[in-house]
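anyone seen this seq b4? input:
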Amino acid sequence: MSSQDEQFQAAAPDPVASSADDGMTWWYRWLCRIAGVIGGMSCAFAGLWNCVTINPLNIAAGVWMMLNAFVLFLCEAPFCCQFIEIANAVSARADKLRPWQKAAFYCGMAVFPVMLSLTLTTLFGNAIAFATGVLYGLSALGKKGDAISYARIHQQQKQMDEEKLTGALEGQAL
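predicted toks r here
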């Protein structure tokens, strides 16, 4: 086995391990990835449009947005960056991050250009990238419980409250 094959095996993500620990369904994982790719495209186009100006803050925000697009493509769709040797390794490393870490990273990346230059181009260009972070943040909250378990918990709390109330009334009666 050559060293290149070993690097490929080390860089290839393990789909069973990544899907088991974060609790995301396959369709939600694809939704997050598609949102990341669309967010990367919107950041790239808006960043390029933002660079066509003479205002230095707009240029800085546009360059940052294009950097955001590159990072989103690298993490969410490494097949778009086949010309970069470490693309699969970076993607595998990004897949190992917890959803809340991805959420904080993507939202922070999207907020910075807006803080640099608050224009419609930066706002709308980063909206989908920010939405990708929000989707990952929602997945970090976990699945919603079913109605039966909520009813059982409510019934147990009600029963405990009634027992406390009866115990307090019996203590007053003595």
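The radius of gyration is 24 Å. The chain has eight helices and no strands. kinda curious what u guys think
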